[in-house]
Amino acid sequence: MGRAKLPGRVIAAAAAVVVCVTALADAARALTEEPLSETEVEALQFYHDPARLGEGTVPWQTLADIEVKVSAPAPFQTTMRREFGSSIRSIDGATVKLQGFIFPLQGGERHEYFLLSAYPPGCPFCLPGGPTNLVEIKCAEPVDYTHEAVLIEGRFEILKDDPTGLYYRLSDARRVGE
């Protein structure tokens, strides 16, 4: 009786997990071993400075104004309730700008539907950050993919009970300053 061969997909999935774990370990090591350099701090401030981007730009810190309350009404049953802060509720339905990085959900060079991330995606198999660092984008016109930060303008919506776990969406969005 010979050894069974693993299908190529299983091997590829295992390799992807190894890549993600290695990337996370490297990131954790970098956070614990040495602080960010001045250049790295300046780069992060550049990408997250709404004053530099102009009127109507929402800083990512605003999207963190949320409290998630978890309760267990019965055994093996957990519910989560989101309480959005006043700074978020005040922009619900308004046209705003966000600067971030395109996180495509499908292959291709142009996208009408993608996630905008506060941070550049480092691993193609991992999401960068949690739900306050990601915004669902639905564009009126396709946007070219780029590794650089983009400025996106659209109608901001709070997603109260989205099954995907996302908290926010920009609809009728377009890229600004192309």
Q: Can you offer a commentary on this structure?
A:
The protein folds into 2 domains: 1-34, no CATH class; 46-176, Beta Barrel (OB fold (Dihydrolipoamide Acetyltransferase, E2P)), CATH 2.40.50.870. Helix content is 25%, strand content 36%. It is built from 4 helices and 7 strands, in the order H-H-H-E-E-H-E-E-E-E-E. The chain has helices at residues 8-33, 38-47, 50-53, 86-89, and strands at residues 66-74, 77-84, 95-104, 110-117, 134-144, 150-158, 168-176. The strands form 2 sheets. Strands 3-4-5-7-6 form a 5-stranded mixed β-barrel. The longest helix has 26 residues, at 8-33. The chain is globular, with a radius of gyration of 19 Å.
Keywords summarizing the entry:
single chain, 178 residues, alpha+beta, 2 domains, two-stranded antiparallel ribbon
- Number of structural units classed as domains: 2
Distance between the termini: 62 Å
Beta-strand content estimate = 35-45%
Poorly predicted sequence stretches spanning 5 or more consecutive residues: 8-33
Topology overview:
Blueprint lengths: L7 H26 L4 H10 L2 H4 L12 E9 L2 E8 L1 H4 L5 E10 L5 E8 L16 E11 L5 E9 L9 E9 L2
Parallel strand pairs: 5-7
Antiparallel strand pairs: 1-2, 3-4, 3-6, 4-5, 6-7
